[in-house]
Amino acid sequence: MKKIQISPSILSADFSKLGDEIVKLENGGADMIHVDVMDGHFVPNLTIGPPIIKSLRKYTKLPFDVHLMISPVHKYIKNYADAGADIITIHPEATDDLSESIELIKSLNKKIGVSLNPDTPIDKIKNILSKVDLILIMSVYPGFGGQKFMPEVLDKIKTLNKLKINNKFNFNIEVDGGINFENSKFVIDAGADILVSGTTIFKENEGNIKKNIETLRIS
Ligand code: DX5
Ligand code: ZN
User: pTM for the whole thing?
Assistant: First the structure.
């Protein structure tokens, strides 16, 4: 059985001590750190940018899984690569030329992720599936932590996983939004390789990060 990877979202962390929070995540067994970047334009919320990512880089050797919810994204990709992102995930709606943005991320030697909002069909990105390292399926409308998981995305995960197996594509399937101890098994069974979680990891079991990561991974 494959090992499910956990990418905790620091959106639910204490922003006044992000460095310490990242150390806790690493000690708790996280596989990578999910960084939600929001611009108040592509999504109705504002979070953090390259200087903060750069200052956090020294706290961990874990990969930074940077989810860019910013538009237009293309001209900022290099800033996030330079700040220390390892995986750079973009939304197709946020760039004029998805293939060009993918090529740019590749030229910067970073892993390439493409994200699908709940109402963005797989068809929109079928021509780039062979070129990416990660497909991030959103199971909430992006913008905020703590939203309710949308069960209708399970079919999309299954369809994407079938496409991946039938065509021997190499990307990982990551799922983001509202993942908890009840729905994680359905997400894993549908074909997810990586689970993103903010609220469950930071708030359940009185904030016992290690226990919450382990429970999500094996459920
Ligand atoms: C939503 C973000 C997510 C989300 C995860 O826009 O991309 O990473 O905040 O947090 P929870 O697990 O609280 O839904
Ligand atoms: Zn995210």
Answer: 0.98
